[in-house]
Structure formats: structure tokens, C-alpha cells
């Protein structure tokens, strides 16, 4: 019996009954309810989930298949009813797929066709991903029940934190949460980012009181569509309630550091608001203004003076978080994957506070939690919760160079999910992954994704009971990321190709290039290192025209995908793209450096993204010109093409 001990304790009247096509009583077992204020019950439930991981995974797959047995998608692969009970038949007949394979089905739903194409339950919205396809955000199906699954997931984080940190019910969390733009599809379904979906849902807005999870930010400030007003208002509320703040954070490290930058730029204005008891006139959103005014309540000269003393007078901002919010126990932000680049900056501002990365999730599905939240950022591993989806894993191995990971395997049946030239390999089940091995995550969800390649590369670090724990290694094919943007090598090359059209008529040849994400300032920005050659010259370059080079920067930005351009224009979370021109022979020196560190001369290829500090220092030492984009790229919410 699935999660039997926790279920018996939490809901003794619930009985397991055989499957009925009309009813889904098993879901009460797969998605157990419990009081998040009861941390002991939460930890018992976590133990049951991880102990019975294999049984739960089998039950999850069986439930998904029985529910959706009459969908057009599954009927295209599974014909006989008894095939829906056979895990091996499912793996042999249903292909592992990429997003491009799912587009036609999701597009049809967006254009008004029934959800039964892929899901027996109604698709209630489409979740836009930070990943893109054809320059536009990917869209993932979601259902009303999926919001309940996310609520369950968030509630599971509470007992884990309480196990390691005492007294979290004695104060508040200053969590800076934001919504992003959304669109209405031709079907009437909304398409929006996963966090926007959750914050706008009844699950969030009508959430029951949880004494362990009280926010300083009123919902009205979180739901404010103007990101600048939202950020300022949430910071102001956090400052006014500084004596109650026990933890601070945001979802992504980049967003939290943007908040610190806003504090750095606007602390005088914030102090003026606190000193007068009135919010600035430019906060015009009615709900936001009213909510903040209630918290401001009355003038507070003493608090304004204290903040002014800490932020002003030329004092270093090192440890500013601990100084302004002295009761803070930790900073909760994602510090894995591309967000790891922000760890040194976070540590500078933190005053020694632990950096806590609690969860691993995406638009496709919420996956796992960090059950040792106070570990060092480099040791963060996530335990996948086996009732969230059905998980499979494609083995991957290190390339001959020994550095980056290369996708080496694909699905077991040669379906349409990968390159036909790739070696066909079988997937591995959740409980059968091996310690120290690398895998790409594949999910079958309750919302209509079947054997879908998420694109995340994970490494198995340990097991908790029978559930494996994974370290997030990187996103497959992504070379640059500052915030929620994910630029792959192909997208970078396309943008570069457009920029070359600006300089080639003038006689310039781009002989080599590489890139890196510069996060030394806030916001971070893309840096491209270019080695140029003049046609017919011996390597000497004439003086570079600043206007032309700035035009190259702008052209590249206009050619990057919608998520990048939104981050630049709407969110202001990425700074202007920069091109640094280097002297002739610089990339030969880069190759020499890489070979000296173990790369093979015969197999060496110029890396299109540099992360080594030594390599970046080498390239910077050869720079002869720096140029920035002077224009903000065009962006508007993406549109769904009608058939």
C-alpha cells in the first residue's frame, strides 16, 4: 500500500479501491493531504515516500496510463487495454520525445481543440518555459489538479527546514516573489510562466494560514504586474518589518541580487518613505499602494535613521543583509546550475548566512527537494519525490576531453525524440540509477507529457532510503544564462551570423569567438570575445568604428530569443550585450592554455562558452576594444499561431 503509514495516520478513513475509469481514488493516495503545521507528520510522509519509491513509481505510471488510455496520443502507440498495465510495453512502444515532437499536440490545444488529445483531465492553462523553441518560449500543459500537486510539494519543504532550523514560526520570511507577462491563446487558455500561474491561483491566494510560512510581502505586491513597483514595494515592506524577518530570499539568486541592487540605488528614497509614513507617489498600482500603506502605517524616524546609518556614509556593503535584518537565519535562493555563478556575490552580501537551495522544479513538473538544506552550495542534491511524476533516466557519459558532458544515449525504441545517428539505449528507472553516474531526466506527467526529455543533466550523489539524490549538473546545450534566459550554442551562432552581416561588407572577417556570462555587476550581461581580421591584411586591424561595433551588439540582441529580450526589456534582469575585440593570435593562446590543462590537440575545438577564470583572464589581457549595445531589443509577449 502506497505511503501506508503516513496515510493511515493522516486520513484513516481513506480506503484503496480498484481502478474505475470514471473515478480516480488512487490519486488521494498519490497526493496525500496533511497539515503543513504538523512537521512530524510531514517528515513521516517523506520517509514513506522515499522508502516506497519503487512501488509508488509503478503506481504513478499505472494511474497516468489508465487515466489517459483514451487520449489520441497514447492510442497512437498502445492499442490493447491490457497494454496500459505493462510498464515494459509502455517503454517499448511509446517513444522518448523532445519538445519539437509535442508541439503539434500543444498547438492544437492552444488553438481550441479538446484536451483529450493528450489528457483525460481538462488542460486549464499552458505554462511557458524559460527554454525556447524557434525563438519562442516552450509551452507545457497544466491542469487544476497540478496546482494541488505543487501545493503538496511546497508544503513538503516546510518540515524539512524545521528539522534543521528552529523557531521559524516566531517570525516572517522576506521572500521577493514576482509575476511575469501572460497571453491568452486562441482557445481562451492562458499561457504564462509556472510561478505566475501558481501565485495567481486560488491555491496561493486562498492558502490556509501556516505559521511557518508567513511573508512580509502582501499578496498585492507580489501580484503587481509592474515589476519595478513590485520590487520596491516588497523591499519597503521587508524593511518596515525588519525585526520580524527570520529568512530572506527569492526563487532565483539573480532576482535576489537585483533586489539588493535596488536597495543600493534607492535606500535614501526608502528611508524617506519610512520616515514620513507615506509610500512614494510613483507607486501607482492601487492594490499595491493600499497594501504597502497599511504596513507603513505611521512615520518611523528611528528605523529610517538605522537603515540610513547602515547603507550610507561610504560604508562597505559586505554583510549588509545580516546588518539590516539581524534575526535572519538563512538566505533561500536557487544556487545550483547557472545560478551557481552568483554564489560569491551572495556570500559578500550575506554576512556568513547559509545559502539554502530547497527545491528542483521546472515548467514541466516539480521534481525534488533538498533534504539537507544547510549543506554547502557545492554539495546540494535533490531527492526526487516519487509521487510527482514517473521518472526515467537516459545515461550520459563524459566526452573524451574529460570536461563537458555530452548526450550519448537516447530512447530505447528509436522514436522521434532524437538524432537518428545516436546510439539507441534503454532508460533506467528511478530506483535503479547508479551512484556517480550521469543521466538526462525523462518524465511522464499527470498533465499530458509522455516520456519527455527535460534536458537536465543530473549526477547521482547518494540515496535517501530507496530514493536517489541528484546533483544538478547543467542544462543540455545551454551555453549562456544570466537570469531565466537559456541561450544555446545554435542560438548564439544565429545571432552572431546576423552581426557578421554588419561588418563583412566593410572588409572584416570574424575568425574566432567565444563568450561568457559576466555577473561581476548587477545585472549581469553577455560578453562575446571576437578575434577580427581585415581582408588582405597581415593581422593588423585598423581603428574600429564604435558605431559599427555597437550596431553589432544590438543586432545580436535583436536576434536572440524572446526570453532573453524579455529579460532585457521588460524585467531589466540582463544588462546590455558586450563585444570585446581581442588581438590577433589570442585564440591560439587560448588553445595552448587548454592543451596545457589536458585537452587533446587533435580533438581541440574552441569552446563557445568560457567558465575558467584563468581563460577569462587570458582573453581579457588581449582586449583592444570594448563595445556595448546602445539599444534595448524589441520584445512583446509571444503570440500563438492559429492553424
UniProtKB/TrEMBL annotation:
Q: Which GO terms describe its molecular function?
A: acid-amino acid ligase activity
Ranges for domain GH3 middle come to: 382-475
User: What are the record keywords, sorted?
Assistant: Ligase
What residue stretches are annotated with the GH3 C-terminal domain? 490-614
| Database matches in Pfam families | GH3, GH3_C, GH3_M
Record GO cellular component, one term: cytoplasm
Give the protein family: Belongs to the IAA-amido conjugating enzyme family.
Q: State the protein's name.
A: Indole-3-acetic acid-amido synthetase GH3.17-like
Amino acid at each position: 500500500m502506497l505511503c501506508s503509514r503516513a496515510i493511515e495516520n493522516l486520513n484513516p478513513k481513506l480506503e484503496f479501491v480498484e481502478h474505475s475509469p470514471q473515478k480516480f481514488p488512487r490519486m488521494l493516495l498519490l497526493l496525500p493531504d496533511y497539515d503543513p503545521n504538523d512537521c512530524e507528520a510531514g517528515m513521516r510522509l517523506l520517509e514513506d515516500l522515499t522508502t516506497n519509491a519503487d512501488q509508488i513509481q509503478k503506481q504513478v505510471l499505472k494511474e497516468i496510463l489508465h487515466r489517459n488510455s483514451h487520449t489520441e496520443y497514447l492510442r497512437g502507440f498502445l492499442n490493447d487495454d491490457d497494454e496500459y498495465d505493462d510498464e515494459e510495453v509502455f517503454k517499448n512502444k511509446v517513444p522518448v520525445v523532445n519538445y519539437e515532437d509535442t508541439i503539434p499536440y500543444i498547438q492544437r490545444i492552444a488553438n481550441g481543440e479538446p484536451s483529450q488529445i493528450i489528457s483525460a483531465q481538462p488542460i486549464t492553462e499552458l505554462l511557458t518555459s524559460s527554454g525556447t523553441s524557434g525563438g519562442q518560449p516552450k509551452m507545457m500543459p497544466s491542469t487544476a489538479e497540478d496546482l494541488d500537486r505543487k501545493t503538496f510539494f511546497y508544503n513538503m519543504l516546510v518540515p524539512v527546514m524545521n528539522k534543521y532550523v528552529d523557531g521559524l514560526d516566531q517570525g516572517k520570511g522576506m521572500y521577493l516573489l514576482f509575476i511575469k507577462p501572460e497571453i491568452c491563446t486562441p482557445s481562451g487558455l492562458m499561457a504564462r510562466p509556472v510561478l505566475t500561474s501558481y501565485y495567481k491561483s486560488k491555491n496561493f491566494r486562498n492558502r490556509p494560514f501556516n505559521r511557518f510560512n508567513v511573508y512580509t510581502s502582501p499578496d498585492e505586491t507580489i501580484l503587481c504586474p509592474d515589476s519595478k513597483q513590485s520590487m520596491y514595494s516588497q523591499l519597503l515592506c521587508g524593511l518596515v518589518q525588519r525585526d520580524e524577518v527570520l529568512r530572506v530570499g527569492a526563487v532565483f539568486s539573480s532576482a535576489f541580487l537585483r533586489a539588493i541592487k535596488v536597495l543600493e540605488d534607492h535606500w535614501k528614497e526608502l528611508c524617506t518613505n519610512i520616515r514620513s509614513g507615506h509610500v512614494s507617489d510613483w507607486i501607482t498600482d492601487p492594490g499595491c499602494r493600499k497594501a504597502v500603506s497599511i504596513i507603513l502605517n505611521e512615520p518611523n524616524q528611528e528605523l529610517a535613521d538605522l537603515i540610513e546609518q547602515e547603507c550610507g556614509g561610504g560604508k562597505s556593503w559586505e554583510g549588509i543583509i545580516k546588518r539590516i535584518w539581524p534575526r535572519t537565519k538563512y538566505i533561500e535562493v536557487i544556487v545550483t546550475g547557472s545560478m551557481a555563478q552568483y554564489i560569491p556575490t551572495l556570500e559578500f552580501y550575506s554576512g556568513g548566512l547559509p545559502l539554502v537551495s530547497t527545491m528542483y522544479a521546472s515548467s514541466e513538473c516539480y521534481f525534488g527537494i533538498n533534504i539537507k538544506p544547510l549543506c554547502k552550495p557545492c554539495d546540494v542534491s535533490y531527492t526526487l519525490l516519487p509521487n510527482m511524476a514517473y521518472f526515467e533516466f537516459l545515461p550520459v557519459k563524459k566526452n573524451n576531453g574529460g570536461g563537458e558532458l555530452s548526450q550519448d544515449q537516447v530512447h530505447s525504441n528509436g522514436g522521434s525524440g532524437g538524432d537518428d545517428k545516436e546510439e539507441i539505449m534503454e532508460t533506467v528507472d528511478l530506483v535503479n540509477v547508479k551512484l556517480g553516474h550521469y543521466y538526462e531526466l525523462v518524465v511522464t506527467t499527470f498533465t499530458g507529457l509522455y516520456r519527455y526529455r527535460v534536458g537536465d543533466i543530473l549526477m547521482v550523489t547518494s540515496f535517501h532510503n530507496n530514493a536517489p539524490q541528484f546533483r544538478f549538473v547543467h542544462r543540455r546545450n545551454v551555453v549562456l544564462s544570466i537570469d531565466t534566459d537559456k541561450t544555446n550554442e545554435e542560438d548564439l551562432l544565429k545571432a552572431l551570423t546576423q552581426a557578421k552581416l554588419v561588418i563583412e561588407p566593410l572588409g572584416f572577417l570574424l575568425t574566432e569567438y567565444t563568450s561568457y556570462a559576466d555577473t561581476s555587476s548587477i545585472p549581469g550581461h553577455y560578453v562575446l570575445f571576437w578575434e577580427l581580421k581585415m581582408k588582405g591584411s597581415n593581422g593588423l586591424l585598423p581603428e574600429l568604428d564604435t558605431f559599427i561595433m555597437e550596431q553589432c551588439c544590438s543586432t545580436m540582441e535583436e536576434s536572440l530569443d524572446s526570453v532573453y529580450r524579455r529579460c532585457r526589456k521588460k524585467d531589466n534582469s540582463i544588462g546590455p550585450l558586450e563585444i570585446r575585440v581581442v588581438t590577433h593570435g589570442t585564440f591560439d593562446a587560448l588553445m595552448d592554455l587548454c592543451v596545457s590543462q589536458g585537452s587533446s590537440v587533435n580533438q581541440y575545438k574552441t569552446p563557445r562558452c568560457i567558465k575558467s577564470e584563468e581563460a577569462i583572464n587570458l582573453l581579457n589581457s588581449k582586449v583592444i576594444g570594448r563595445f556595448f549595445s546602445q539599444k534595448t531589443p524589441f520584445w512583446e509577449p509571444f503570440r500563438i499561431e492559429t492553424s
